[in-house]
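[Meeting: bench + compute handoff]

Bench side (C.D.) handed over the final construct sequence. Compute side (W.E.) agreed to return the predicted structure before the next meeting so the bench team could plan truncations. Sequence as handed over:
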Amino acid sequence: MRADAQRNRALIVAAASEAVARDGAYASLEEIARAAGVGSATLHRHFPSRWALLEAVFHDRVEALCDRAAQLAAGPDAGQALTTWLCELAAYNATTRGLVASLLQEPPEDESCCAMLVAAGEPLRRRAVDEGAVRPDVAMADLVTLVNAIALATESASATEAQRLMRLALEGISPTRR
């Protein structure tokens, strides 16, 4: 990518980050282009859809959540590690305007934020299944969908409420709760 194209892309992502934090996932693309100092055609050349732009806005934050999953994987209690990560993910999703909408819009692709979260959580889920803390029929993609649903339900509440509901929902994945 040429230097001017890289600069324009960075300006668009910075402007979109501010607009999404203020207005949510449906922030005006025209206003984002204006704030970035580019035309709407330039914005659409870099980001063919609103969801592609949101993926770029949230990519670094999602990477941090993936790193957190790797940290927790080293802990002694697999079930607790998975629960902690999913609760942290629910709290983060509930308090980050626009993130859940972007995660739910696009089907998971190899580089999508949703796919990154599923891949990061899979070792936690697999270890929890191996240790008998989670039923084997529970898929990581289902858990990420559950987190997103809770985040949508608690969007106007608090991170604490999202975590409380996540813990409540996770009681249902335990093999002893059937």
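W.E. noted at the follow-up: The chain has a mean pLDDT of 87. C.D. will use this when planning the next construct.
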